[in-house]
Design brief:
Elements (H helix, E strand, L loop, with lengths): L1 E9 L3 H12 L8 E4 L41 H15 L10 E6 L5 E5 L2 E10 L21 E4 L13 E5 L3 H10 L5 E6 L5 E2 L5 H16 L7 H5 L1 E2 L2 H9 L4 E3 L3 E3 L2 E3 L5 E3 L2 E4 L24 E2 L2 E2 L2 E6 L8 H20 L3 H7 L1
Parallel strand pairs: 1-2, 1-5, 5-18, 6-15, 7-8, 7-15, 8-11, 9-10
Antiparallel strand pairs: 3-4, 4-5, 12-13, 13-14, 16-17, 17-18
The structure holds flavin-adenine dinucleotide (FAD).
Flavin-adenine dinucleotide binds next to helix 1 and helix 7.
Length: about 350
Amino acid sequence: MTREIDVVVVGAGQAGLSAAYHLRRTGFEPGRDFVVLDHAPGPGGAWQFRWPSLTYGKVHGMHSLPGMELTRADPGRPSSEVIAAYFDAYERAFALDVVRPVDVLAVREGERGRLRVETSAGVWSARALINATGTWDRPFVPRVAGQETFRGRQLHTVGYRGPEDFAGLRAVVVGGGASGTQHLLELAPYAAATAWVTRRPPVFREGPFDAEAGRAAVALVEERVRQGLAPRSVVSVTGLPLNDAIREGLRSGVLDRLPMFDRMTPEGVEWADGRSFAAEVVLWATGFRASVGHLAPLRLREPGGGIRLVGTRAAADPRVQLVGYGPSASTVGANRAGRAAVREVRRLLEGGSGLSGAAAA
Ligand SMILES: Cc1cc2nc3c(=O)[nH]c(=O)nc-3n(C[C@H](O)[C@H](O)[C@H](O)COP(=O)(O)OP(=O)(O)OC[C@H]3O[C@@H](n4cnc5c(N)ncnc54)[C@H](O)[C@@H]3O)c2cc1C
């Protein structure tokens, strides 16, 4: 059975919920006019999977969703619990009726200029799609010579559960972003020895990260997306905030950075100049890619590897909005993108014939 609906929102993280809120506010009814599908077991978007030691007090700045502040959150409580509870309350307050767990498997050209959304719970036929699937489901690990020969454990940030797992071990942490430094500072007191490895020398940022610095960082990512290049994370262009914990890590030597190693061996990692570090565990804090594999049948990708956007709209298909992608992959960006995407969807649906025209083009 195929269900017909105006708008399918894929993903109920910050970006998808923001879009759902704005759809509701402008008169779209959940269930009748739009549906939000999410394949996670509960509310919270990717936050529900973040490691328990990432307490709410340690996150960089969570912007509330539109229309309902996140107040009185206990900074000592895991952010996975705080955000999941907040999103749950939010979904109920605005009766967003998120349907879960539903895995969106493929979105392809449908009949009469509509999009065919194939899922684990059947098919929806939609006039527009707001994609808000984030990056958590696509952890990225670079390929390194000899990787498969390493006898120790390798894990990515997605599999990190806390520093206790590293007790007494020699550990390599790869990655110069916020996750890499947070992991390292946390696990160093437990591990027998640590090495921090990053591809590029880390850039530390003095002073507050104000609105102007934020805008400049977003503009950099935006420019890449406009050119159809694969987006970089917003965090990757903001630099690492030089807070007390980082200062202490630099002072103690935990954050003495080494360049990327050239190969892995059964016993550890090696550099071409003959240096080596024996290790029992390698933690890849090497980031994520956009989870957009289900959009592949629409052929939105440019030769540069990214999906070119005009605002939030896919340049190659005006029926598709991407929110939480590239420049809007932060909580504040996701909020704004949700509103912008709904404005675009309304314009498209009110334009009527624009739909089939676009599909035919
Ligand atoms: C470790 C870490 C810490 C961060 N800290 C901050 C911070 O402090 N401040 C900040 O602003 N940003 C932070 N970010 C960036 C953060 O990811 C974004 O701010 C924001 O939470 C992302 O929201 P989203 O809605 O785009 O994605 P997500 O929260 O990832 O939501 C995507 C949703 O889509 C669903 N989904 C994915 N694919 C499918 C599919 N095929 N079918 C159905 N459902 C699907 C998922 O289940 C998920 O619920 C952090 C990121 C990481 C990795």
